[in-house]
Automatic annotation (TrEMBL), chain A:
<dbReference type="InterPro" id="IPR051396">
    <property type="entry name" value="Bact_Antivir_Def_Nuclease"/>
</dbReference>
<dbReference type="GO" id="GO:0006302">
    <property type="term" value="P:double-strand break repair"/>
</dbReference>
<feature type="domain" description="ATPase AAA-type core">
    <location>
        <begin position="361"/>
        <end position="442"/>
    </location>
</feature>
<feature type="region of interest" description="Disordered">
    <location>
        <begin position="1"/>
        <end position="86"/>
    </location>
</feature>
<dbReference type="InterPro" id="IPR003959">
    <property type="entry name" value="ATPase_AAA_core"/>
</dbReference>
<feature type="domain" description="Rad50/SbcC-type AAA">
    <location>
        <begin position="90"/>
        <end position="133"/>
    </location>
</feature>
<dbReference type="GO" id="GO:0016887">
    <property type="term" value="F:ATP hydrolysis activity"/>
</dbReference>
<feature type="domain" description="DUF3696">
    <location>
        <begin position="456"/>
        <end position="500"/>
    </location>
</feature>
<dbReference type="InterPro" id="IPR022532">
    <property type="entry name" value="DUF3696"/>
</dbReference>
<dbReference type="Pfam" id="PF13304">
    <property type="entry name" value="AAA_21"/>
</dbReference>
<dbReference type="Pfam" id="PF12476">
    <property type="entry name" value="DUF3696"/>
</dbReference>
<protein>
    <recommendedName>
        <fullName>DUF3696 domain-containing protein</fullName>
    </recommendedName>
</protein>
<dbReference type="GO" id="GO:0005524">
    <property type="term" value="F:ATP binding"/>
</dbReference>
<feature type="compositionally biased region" description="Basic and acidic residues">
    <location>
        <begin position="8"/>
        <end position="80"/>
    </location>
</feature>
<dbReference type="Pfam" id="PF13476">
    <property type="entry name" value="AAA_23"/>
</dbReference>
<dbReference type="InterPro" id="IPR038729">
    <property type="entry name" value="Rad50/SbcC_AAA"/>
</dbReference>
<dbReference type="InterPro" id="IPR027417">
    <property type="entry name" value="P-loop_NTPase"/>
</dbReference>
Length: 506, 359
C-alpha cells in the first residue's frame, strides 16, 4: 500500500511486504470522495440559490417592465425615485483651442452637444477631460500640474494665441482657464473650482481657485516659474541654480509674499477640505469615450471602472458587478443589448470543478443562431458601442462623456441610445454628456421628455456654433414639457435634410 | 399668422405613379405647410395613418418624400403640433365617417384626397371642392382643399396677406387684433416670450398720468384664454428706475415689481400660478418682439405701448414685422437668452404672493 492510498489520519504502519492493494483504505477514500462531491454539490446549489435571490432583489429594486402587455399603456412610474442631479452644473472654458474668450457651458444630468464640424463641440468635452485630469494629477504635485496634465502635447499648442504687435519682445498665448461648478453632497451647495495657465517666454504661470460659487471666500493660489531669476553661472560646488517656482496665496483679497518652492503638494492651498475632497473624488470619476474606441479584440474586455462608487443614494452601488462568479453584471448587459435590439448576448461557459459546475468564462454569442462569435467578427458598430453600454450600465455616480456615440450605427439604434443614456442617468445616477450629430437621438430624448421619463430640466441641448461674425457661441436650446424645443434650432443643420427633400427640382 | 393644417392620409398618394405633375403637387403642399402653418397630428392613429401613407408613397416613388420632411420640421421645434387631448380617430377616419365637423376646433385647413369623394360633405361644398375650385369653406373656421389646390385656398391667401401687410389699421377692434394676429400663434405654443424694454411704461406715474396697466392685463387675459394648458409666459423688460429715468417727464415715478404684481392681479382670467416669469434687465436690446414657441414671432415697429385702444378700437395704426423660422428668429431667441442670464428673474407664484425673486 502506498501513502497515496492511505486515508488521512490512518496511523497504521505499512507492511514492507505489500504486493496487493488495500481494499479497506480504497473503500474509505471512495466514501470520502463521494461525501466531498455531495457537499460541493450542496454548496453550489446554495451558491446558485443565493445568486438567484440577489438577482431577484436587484430586479425588485431597480428594474421595471419596459414591455407592457399588448394593448396596455406603460404604467406610470410606480416608485418614487430620486430625480437625478448633475454632478457638474457648469463648465468654464476660456481660450481652449477654438473656444476663444470665456464660455460658461451649462450641463444637466443628460447633456447633448450639437453643432457643425470644427465649431468646438469636441473641445468642450476635451476641456472637461483636461480639467479633471489636471486636478487628478495636480492634487499631489501642484508645480507640475500642467506638464503632467498635458503629457502628450505642448500646452501652448492647445491655448488660443494672442496676436502680438511686431515689436513685442515675447510671444504670448492667452490665459487658459478651465473650471467647473460642482454640487456638494448633503448640502447641495454649488462650489466652483478653476485652474489657469499661461505660457510665455519669461516662464509659465498657473493658478488655482476654489470656493463656494458666488461666495466671497475664494481660495486662490498662483504659481510662477521664474526663468529670469535663474542664475546661469555655474557656482562650482553648488552646481547651477535653475529657475524656481514662486508660489503666492490670496486670502481675503490680500496676496501673500511669493515663496520659493521646489515642491508643492497643496494644489488649492488650505481651502475648505470638503470642497477639495469632493472635487478630487469627482476628478477620478470621469469616463471619457473618444469617437474611436479601438479596433475590436477577439474577446471583449470590460471597461475599467475603478471601485469608487458614489454615495449610495441610489441603492445600487456595487450591486451589478463584472466578474465570473456573479452574473448580475452580464445579465444587465445582456438585457440592455436585447433592449437595444442588438442580436448578441454574453453566454456563460461552464466547467466542472470540485464535484460542482461553475461559470468559467463569458463569451459573446449570436442570439439568433446561438453560435459563439469573436468580438472582432461582429458588426463594427456593435464593437464600438459595447464599451459605451458597459459604462452606462455599470458605472454609478460618474460623469460619462462620449464623443459621437452614433458612429457606425443605424438611425434606429441611434434613437435607442437615448434610452440607454436615460437609463444611465435615471437608474445609475450618472451624468452623461454626449457630443453628437444624431437627429434620431434628439427625437427619442424629446419623446422621453414627452412621456415624462425625463424632465425638461434634466436634459440640456447645447448648440455650439462658430461663425466669423460672432465667433464661438454656446446656446442652450430649452425643452418644453411636451419635449418640444422652446428655442429655434439654428439654421444649417437639420435643415439640410429638408433642402435635400425639397431641392433639386429647379 | 399661421394656419393649422391637417392631411388626410389618402391625400398622400400619387395616382399617376409619380408623374412630374403629381410630384410638384406634393412639393407645393409641403412648402405651404412649412411656410404658412403647422402640420397637425390628431393622435397616435392619425400618426400611424400618415406614416403608413408615407411608406406607400416611398414605395411608389422609390424614395421617402414626406417622412424626412416631417422629421425636419419636427426636429427644428416648430412645424408639427399634436392635438390635446389626442383623438382616437385619424383624419382619414373622420373623412370616411363624414364627420369632418369634429375637426373644426383643431384644424384651419384640411387637405383631402381627390381619389374618392368624402361622404357627408354638403353638395355645394362638394361641387366647389371636387369640380370647381379644389377648395371650399366647410364650416365657419374650417376649410377643405385638395392637395393640388392648397396654395389657392382662402386660408393660405389670407395668411399670405397677413405676412405681406405689416400695418394694422386704426379702428381695428381689439378682439380682431388679437384673433387675427396673435391668437393663431398662441393656441399652438407652449411658451410665449414678450420682449419689450418699455413693456411696463404704462406703470410709470407722472404728475399728469396716474399709470395704466391695461395693456398688460389685456395681454395676459388674452393669452390665458388661448394658450394651451401648462403653457408659460415670459416677460422681458427694463427696471422701473431705468424706464422712469428715460422718461422725458421729470416727474416720472419708477414702478416696482410689486406694481407689476398688482397689474397681474387685475387680470380676471390669469390663474396660471408659476407660469409667468419676469426677467428685468436694464441692458435689454432695443428691438421688441413677441416670440411664440411654435416658431414664429411678431416684431412691433414701435413699443407695445403703441397698442392703444379707445372704446375697444385701435387708436393709431400699429406697424409690425412678421418673423418666420430662420436666422432672424434665432437672433431674437439669442437676445432672450442673454437677458435670462443677465437679468433678475422673478416668478409669479400667485395673485396673493405676486412675483418672487429667484436665486
Amino acid at each position: 500500500m502506498s501513502d497515496s492510498t492511505r486515508t488521512p489520519g490512518d496511523e497504521r504502519p505499512i507492511s514492507p511486504d505489500w504486493v496487493g492493494l488495500d481494499r479497506e483504505a480504497m473503500k474509505t477514500r471512495q466514501e470520502e470522495t463521494v461525501r466531498r462531491m455531495r457537499e460541493a454539490g450542496e454548496r453550489w446549489r446554495e451558491e446558485q440559490k443565493r445568486s438567484e435571490e440577489q438577482l431577484q432583489a436587484f430586479l425588485d429594486r431597480h428594474a421595471d417592465d419596459s414591455r407592457p402587455a399588448e394593448g396596455k399603456t406603460q404604467p406610470r412610474e410606480a416608485k418614487q425615485r430620486p430625480r437625478p442631479q448633475p454632478l457638474i452644473e457648469r463648465l468654464h472654458v476660456e481660450n481652449l483651442k477654438s473656444l476663444a474668450g470665456r464660455h460658461e457651458i451649462p450641463l444637466a444630468p443628460l447633456t447633448l452637444v450639437y453643432g457643425p464640424n470644427s465649431a468646438g463641440k469636441s473641445t468642450a468635452l476635451k476641456a472637461l477631460q483636461l480639467f479633471m485630469h489636471a486636478v487628478d494629477t495636480g492634487r499631489s504635485d501642484a508645480l507640475n500640474l500642467w506638464r503632467r496634465a498635458f503629457p502628450d502635447v505642448r500646452p501652448d499648442s492647445v491655448v488660443t494665441w494672442e496676436r502680438q504687435a511686431e515689436d513685442t519682445p515675447f510671444s504670448q498665448t492667452r490665459t487658459l482657464v478651465l473650471g467647473v461648478d460642482y454640487r456638494l453632497p448633503r448640502s447641495g451647495d454649488l462650489a466652483r473650482a478653476e485652474l489657469g495657465f499661461q505660457s510665455s517666454d519669461i516662464g509659465p504661470w498657473q493658478s488655482s481657485t476654489i470656493g463656494l460659487a458666488g461666495g466671497p471666500d475664494q481660495a486662490r493660489k498662483e504659481f510662477f516659474l521664474n526663468f529670469e531669476d535663474a542664475d546661469p553661472i555655474d557656482r562650482g560646488d553648488f552646481g547651477s541654480i535653475g529657475p524656481r517656482w514662486e508660489v503666492s496665496e490670496w486670502s481675503g483679497g490680500e496676496r501673500s509674499e511669493p515663496m520659493k518652492r521646489d515642491v508643492d503638494h497643496l494644489l488649492f492651498g488650505d481651502a475648505d477640505v470638503h470642497l477639495q475632497r469632493t472635487l478630487f473624488r469627482l476628478a477620478g470619476q470621469l469616463t471619457h469615450f473618444g469617437p474611436h474606441r479601438g479596433n475590436p479584440a477577439e474577446k471583449y474586455s470590460p471597461v475599467d471602472l475603478d471601485d469608487i462608487a458614489g454615495p449610495d443614494h441610489w441603492g445600487i452601488a456595487g450591486a451589478p458587478r463584472w466578474g465570473v462568479a456573479g452574473f448580475e453584471g452580464h445579465e444587465v448587459l445582456n438585457q440592455l443589448l436585447e433592449q437595444l435590439e442588438i442580436p448578441h448576448s454574453f453566454e456563460p461557459t461552464f466547467t466542472s470543478d470540485q464535484g460542482g459546475v461553475r461559470v468559467s468564462d463569458w463569451i459573446l454569442a449570436d442570439r439568433r443562431s446561438g453560435a459563439p462569435v469573436p468580438l472582432s467578427e461582429v458588426g463594427y458598430g456593435v464593437s464600438q458601442l459595447l464599451p459605451v453600454i458597459d459604462a452606462c450600465a455599470h458605472a454609478t455616480q460618474r460623469v460619462i462623456s462620449i464623443e459621437e456615440p452614433e458612429l457606425h450605427l443605424h438611425p434606429r439604434l441611434q434613437a435607442r441610445l437615448a434610452n440607454l443614456f436615460a437609463f444611465s442617468v435615471l437608474r445609475r445616477g450618472n451624468q452623461v454628456i454626449v457630443e453628437t450629430h444624431s437627429e434620431s437621438l434628439l427625437l427619442r430624448v424629446r419623446r422621453l421628455v414627452r412621456s415624462g421619463k425625463l424632465l425638461p430640466d434634466e436634459v440640456a441641448v447645447l448648440y455650439i456654433d462658430n461663425t466669423p461674425e460672432v465667433g464661438v457661441s454656446v446656446r442652450r436650446l430649452r425643452l418644453g414639457e411636451q419635449g418640444e424645443l422652446l428655442d429655434p434650432w439654428p439654421t444649417g443643420f437639420f435643415d439640410d435634410s429638408l433642402a435635400d427633400v425639397l431641392g433639386g427640382w429647379e | 399668422m399661421i394656419g393649422r393644417f391637417a392631411i388626410d392620409a389618402d391625400a398622400l398618394t400619387l395616382p399617376n405613379g409619380g408623374s412630374l405633375g403629381a410630384r410638384l403637387e406634393h412639393k407645393r403642399l409641403a412648402e405651404c405647410v412649412l411656410e404658412f402653418g403647422l402640420l397637425g397630428v390628431l393622435g397616435p392613429n392619425d400618426a400611424k395613418a400618415l406614416f403608413g401613407a408615407m411608406e406607400r408613397l416611398a414605395d411608389q416613388l422609390g424614395y421617402d418624400f414626406w417622412r424626412p420632411l416631417m422629421r425636419a420640421i419636427d426636429s427644428s421645434g416648430p412645424g408639427v403640433f399634436r392635438a390635446r387631448p389626442p383623438h382616437d380617430m385619424s383624419v382619414h377616419d373622420y373623412a370616411l365617417a363624414g364627420d369632418l365637423e369634429q375637426l373644426q376646433a383643431v384644424v384651419d385647413l384640411l387637405v383631402l384626397g381627390s381619389s374618392d369623394r368624402a361622404p357627408g360633405v354638403p353638395p355645394t361644398v362638394a361641387r366647389a371642392l371636387y369640380d370647381d375650385h379644389g377648395y371650399a369653406s366647410f364650416t365657419n373656421g374650417l376649410e377643405v382643399a385638395l392637395s393640388s389646390a392648397v396654395d389657392q385656398s382662402e386660408t393660405v391667401h389670407r395668411l399670405k396677406a397677413l405676412h405681406r401687410e405689416t400695418i394694422i389699421p386704426a379702428g381695428t377692434l381689439r378682439t380682431a387684433v388679437w384673433d387675427t394676429y396673435f391668437r393663431p400663434l398662441a393656441r399652438v405654443s407652449t411658451e410665449v416670450n414678450i420682449f419689450d424694454r418699455f413693456l411696463f411704461s404704462g406703470l410709470v406715474k407722472t404728475s399728469k398720468f396716474n399709470g395704466n396697466a391695461s395693456l398688460l392685463t389685456w395681454l395676459l387675459d388674452s393669452l390665458d384664454r388661448d394658450l394651451p394648458r401648462n403653457a408659460t409666459v415670459n416677460l422681458f423688460a427694463r427696471s422701473g428706475n431705468r424706464v422712469a429715468d428715460e422718461n422725458h417727464d421729470k416727474t416720472a415715478q419708477p414702478y416696482s415689481v410689486g406694481d407689476i404684481s398688482d397689474a397681474v392681479k387685475k387680470s380676471r382670467r390669469w390663474r396660471r400660478n408659476g407660469r409667468l416669469h419676469l426677467y428685468v434687465d436694464d441692458a435689454l436690446d432695443h428691438d421688441r418682439h413677441v416670440r411664440f414657441s411654435c416658431g414664429h414671432a411678431i416684431m412691433p415697429q414701435g413699443g407695445f405701448d403703441k397698442l392703444r385702444f379707445r372704446e375697444g378700437a385701435l387708436l393709431k395704426p400699429f406697424s409690425y414685422a412678421y418673423v418666420p423660422p430662420g436666422d432672424g428668429l434665432n437672433r431674437r431667441a439669442d437676445e432672450e437668452a442673454k437677458a435670462r442670464s443677465r437679468g433678475i428673474h422673478y416668478v409669479h407664484r400667485s395673485k396673493d404672493e405676486g412675483f418672487v425673486r429667484q436665486a
